[in-house]
Design goal:
5 helices, single chain, mainly alpha
């Protein structure tokens, strides 16, 4: 056998059989990851509402006590979902880029502040599918994959700025 090495071809993003996940399966698993994160978030909200919020809101009285506890529930829910979605996405082998895309989509929806509108709920239901499609590993050159990641990062920065503007404008 020869000891010479073959010249390597230009590097192209190669997806192995073990790493390959069809787009339809990726969309379905993104819904599973969001469901798992939602369950964890629900448990966090219940525990916080029972244990932490009464201590944090003990200075409030009457209606202010209810408003304080509700604010705690909202913030624990938002932060808990964002933090629990990453391990859920990694557990179902979707990667951190799905998490980044989903966080951007959800942050834009929170900033809209239209939770009482029917179209808001329709868009919330579509966020996992959109994040799965935006973060999928298509078989193209590494430069295009980097461009896809740059788009996700730009969306995350824009969503964070929009969320900050929404928070300080109210």
């Amino acid at each position: 056998m020869s000891r010479r090495r073959a010249r390597s071809a230009p590097q192209v993003l190669r997806v192995t059989e073990a790493d390959f996940m069809p787009v339809s399966a990726r969309v379905a698993w993104s819904y599973v990851a969001c469901l798992l994160a939602g369950v964890v978030t629900g448990l966090l909200v219940v525990v916080t509402n029972v244990a932490v919020a009464p201590l944090a809101c003990r200075a409030a009285t009457g209606d202010d006590f209810g408003d304080c506890k509700f604010a705690w529930m909202i913030w624990v829910g938002i932060i808990g979902f964002v933090l629990s979605l990453l391990p859920a996405a990694l557990m179902v082998k979707l990667g951190p880029w799905l998490w980044a895309a989903a966080v951007a989509g959800l942050a834009f929806l929170v900033a809209v502040g239209a939770i009482d509108q029917w179209w808001w709920w329709a868009l919330v239901v579509l966020v996992p599918a959109a994040a799965a499609l935006l973060s999928v590993t298509w078989e193209y050159a590494p430069a295009l994959r980097r461009a896809q990641r740059v788009v996700i990062v730009v969306l995350d920065v824009a969503a964070a700025l929009t969320l900050a503007w929404w928070y300080w404008s109210d």
